[in-house]
Amino acid sequence: MALPPPDPQFVLRGTSAAVHALHFSCGGQEPGVPVLFSGSENGFIHVWNLKTHRVDTALDGHGRKSVYCLETMGGKNRLLSQGRDQRICLWDLAEGRTSVTDSVFTENVGFCRCSLLKVAQGRWLMAMAAKAPEEVQVLELPSKTSVCTLKPELGAKLGMPMCLKLWQLSCGSQPSLLAGYEDGSVVLWNLSMKKALSQLACHQEPVMSLDFDSEKAKGISGSSEKVLSIWSLNEQQNLQVYKTHELVNAGISDIAIRPDKKILATAGWDHRIRIFGWKKLKPLAVLDYHTATVHCVSFSDHKNPSERLLAAGSRDHRISIWSIYTQT
Amino acid sequence: VCFILGGLDCSISFVSHVLGKVCVHGRHKEILSVLVPLLMDLTKSDCIWQRICWRLIECVPDRWMEAVVLGFVQRTPGADVLSRLLGNLVVKNKKAQFVVTQKLLLLQYCHTTAVLQSLLGYLSLDSLRRPLLLKALQELMDTWGSSSAAKHSPPEQQLYISKAILICLSHLKEPEVESCRQELLTSMMEGMKCHLDSSLPQIRRLGMIVAESISSKINIDGPVLKFQYEEDDESRELKSLLVQTPPFTVVPSLLDNENKKANATLPLVLESNKSSRTAASVMPVEESDAELDSDDDLIPYDMSGDKELKTKAPVYIRDCIEVLTGSENVDKWEATVKALESLVRKNPAAAREVSVELAKILLHLEEKTCIEGFVELRQRAQVAVLTTDPIPVAKYLTSQFYSLNYSLRQRMDILDVLVLAAQELSYPKFHGKTKHSGAPKPCIQLLPGSDSSKDWRRVVDERIKSKTRRFATGQPQVELASSPNEFSSVAGHFFFPLIQHFDRPLATFDLLGEDHFVLGRLVHTLAILMYLAVNTVVVPAMGKALLEFVWVLRFHTDSFVRQGLLSCISSMLLSVPTERLLEDMTEELLETQSWLGDVVEKDPDGDCRRLALQNLLLMENLKNKLKTVPS
Question: Model pTM?
Fold first, then answer.
């Protein structure tokens, strides 16, 4: 007898605009308050205190244009935000400051979220959609030097890059980039050689979001159609479709795999969050709380497994926080 | 017939005379059925016999030449045989040339396709005769392209000319196509225009097929014309004429090239599909063994509530009106359009309050998103509104029919909706559980298209049969539960406003001028409304008005309109009780009878003639019926 799905542990209200980006920062070395960053359509970044469930700070750095991507660079005091004002801003939030220390002008008017990867102490790589139509640019932060520009070959007709994921097999190995494009294909890029190693057509519609498990060399992508596509990377660095899963309603805006690689969450256009087991993509739960499309999901990085949380931000201005499958 | 050879100069002019005389007297079948096979065999390899045969025909006097040539063309089984038998007769003899290139192609149209094939093939086989082929093609194109021919000549003749054009095209070689490309293009454009203008679907389709074929011939590299039309035996036969078996035609090789290209792309796609599939099948096999599931520890929750997301349609009619007029929510709009008809039918009282408003909204409703069957959904909703509240909505619709700034499509929609609603209202509804077994009236299959004329003929035929036998068969055993004909009270509201303003042209709508297609549809609609109003009180008045209307338009040039007018007469004769017909409209009926007789003899369109004949038969039957009823 299956239990009914759980209710959210708590709901954060007060953004007064659709929530497009979420990022947890709870596992930091400094003892402190676990924090959730949320980016809204009205350009504000809210810093939520997860103990009091209230907004600690509101950051306004994107000229009231929607913020659709948030990342932290080593702790909650350094935040990276990407907005529709074509800028990526780096914030310094230590000791109560709220200033933008640096910004990158991307000249890109799309919706592709950037991807951040730490390659060495104090050095990050950031992949973002570039100004030219099908290109992806990789910058090194904080120096903002361009590492490479990844251009698909002429006639490939991939369309805009829709979602990016930088990864490396282990610290110190070669970083690679997985990019999902408008024509429904996922491409694996080698950054040092600056060329595409493999291309896989997994969807008929644009790839809206993807996530990758570098240990198992398996990834998952969602699109605006009803199908979730799981693909894997073999030794020859070739992408192959491993499995597909058909959903009840079409449209996925975000996918996140939990850091322990046990479960994953998808944010759907049908207002529902779906939880699957990552091993075999077994459907585990359908969380039906929101009343408008869910734009983003994010897992927390708590060191203590029982404290782990899942956050979902939706167009109905609310952020729901769930505690689900925390026992394993 | 045996000739002594060996250097003798024979004079065969006598034989020619005999042949000619026999043919002109109509006996060409008998003599040629013996002569032609004989000559075929003899001329197969023997040149002398060939020359004798040519001399034979050349010596036929001019006044009998036509009959002989016609006989030969009809009897010989192929172009090459004809070429052997006739030789270059058409080049040498003026009369023969006239018969072959003009009379048989343009003035007569009774010959079969095989005759056309052998005739035109004959012209193409010799280089001396090829200029005649080109000349014939040019004249055929001129005829095909003339708008008066497209309007006034019978469909059978147009079909014949189209076939001849296609066969000529199939015989043309590349250099010849090059030389007359420009003229072909100009006449194709003109011909296409006047064919597409026609109201008869068959003529339109003929025009489309010929234009497609011409364009594929003259534009080998560039884009060709492609129309969308219904395929049937006739169109397939026409298209098959383009492909000729002789080796030097260009068309088959063209088709081969296209086929090769299509085949080349297919294997590539298949290969890539295969490779991805085999790779994918390898993976799951390996993985499934090595699964020690810590996943099994995760117990799924109850997911029974996870169903497809459906937007709910509004439940009240006034809500529907709001959604359709203002709402930005596209999902809700779609759901409303789908649900509207059933809502209107379930809530007739509520629908009656807002009927005219609904009708207005539906008339102007345009497709916001891509729904399947949008046109049908809208039409059914309109019919539902009209049947729920006939009088005000009919008033609104008929007034809008004659208003400014509607598209032709909308005006024809109004006519379709009126007809469908009239049918629904007049159809006897049986309450309770009695199944209706064979209603006394035959069902009209109404297709919202210009096919209503064809079904009309079927209906009229059945009606005539049923009428003439009715007094012999007894009453059916089962007493069917009857209900009043709901159409009777509103028939007048549907009918008279439509007839009222047909002769007043508006700025954008002129029934008597350019918009004769709509006039044709209007006339057919009036015929159906008249038919459905049988046994109603207002029918004699309708009949009188309809007869006057028909009288004014009876010489209209468009055959679709004339067919409609004749259907009007049929339905009038069937619906108005005979006594009233003879009392009120005696003179008009007599005039109509003489007009119908004229139509039977002189109208160029076969369908019109048939309809007129049926009308005359109907009138005869009615007269006889009256005579047999004891007074």
Answer: 0.57
